[in-house]
Specification:
single chain, 371 residues, alpha+beta, nine-stranded antiparallel β-sheet, five-stranded antiparallel β-sheet, 33% strand, disordered N terminus
Amino acid sequence: MHNLKYLWVGLTWFFFVGDVCAICVIHRSLLQTKNIYLRPVNGLYEIQHGDVVSNGQMIHLLCKSGIQQTGFHCQANNVFNPPLNTFICPDAFEPSVVSIRDTSCPSPFHTYAVGYHVSGRFLELYRNCFDAHSLAFQHSIYKAYRHENTAPRPNPSWNSDGLSGGFDNAYEGRATQACLLTNLGAAQPQCKFDRGHMTPASAFMFTELKKATFRYLNAIPQYRGINRGNWKTVETWVNNVVKGLHDNPIVNNVPIQRTYDVLKVCIGALGVHRLQHNTSNKLVSIFLLDNNKIPVPEWMYKIVSHSSGDKWVMLTYNDLNNPSQKDLNQICRQKDCHTGLHLNGRSVGHTVCCEPYHFITRNAPHLTGVC
């Protein structure tokens, strides 16, 4: 009976997934163009996030001039008619940022959604809970979609979206060191902060969608080694899960057919990082601007969930040293990580996996039922 239980779960997932071969794939060369693709859903357009298009689905191009009349139909032979490469956008449709109501974003923070105004509707890419006064980040929410390929990471200028403050200068190395020297009484040679993406560029497959993530309301000051260390490892794991590299897990020696085709990802920051003053030994909270703006977070987390009920939480300490076990235990009830997440103990950024419901209730109750 025990094995029959898992056989039934496997069959359930098999019928849910259906014929995964009946798809068209947008060629990787087109991912790097100015093209943005839309798909009609119940008479309305939605953004085509991934490069995988279901058999029978129609997609349309969104260029600077608007939605192109010609549609591209994914046929039964897994090719588009007409071929997708028959039209390339000469200019890109620019994204917008709008302030929206969202009960998961506690005061004094406000929710800013990034997306596209199309045919009288706003098509959202991701949303961030952000305090425009203190330039502090709270959390970000996006969905990751099944895909096969992705465009290389672009390197556009960062957008401040009209928010006051000298973001560029604050993140610049000499300004950071001067700030820390003033507040800590000594230089901090290891304090090199990246503009750490919260909704990552890698969440999107198309160059134009990736560019939309380079916004200061979507960044935190993150130690460079951590941003490029274990935090990146977790980010890569999310992409690998939704890419299908961890399909068909083994439970009690029984393979379970499971496809995580869409994942909801919530990324957040907790606390303010503190460093010790050189002479007084007091712990000083660290901000990159005016001693009270652009706080350096103490912790970062990712909550990843699937409609099946599967949920994971990964917590990373934003310090080159490890946290005390006491501090860690206060916010995380540790558990084994997903079998596909291989954290390198030698990589920078102490990262653990947490029991999801305890973590959300304890640290992010405003995200209960959301993430």
